[in-house]
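Render this sequence as a predicted structure.
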Amino acid sequence: MNPQLNEYIGYAASFFIVISFILKDVQKIRMVNLLGCICFVIYGIFSGMLWPIIIPNAILFFVQIYHLITSKKSK
């Protein structure tokens, strides 16, 4: 992958995570944070398998998916 593109993915990941702290609606927070987690996993993979970035964001990805699914079932 183009190193510059990978850098932009890292910036996008950081942007999504910061935005998720600004939002008030829990559903929107989870969706935006989910995008950030996906970007961080991609960034970690294409930056040379940076496991300290990949592992927690992959786990958080599944946590966000779980909560999004269970919140829709309860409505």
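Summary. Residues 48 and 56 are 16 Å apart (CA to CA). The helical segments are 3-22, 26-46, 51-74.
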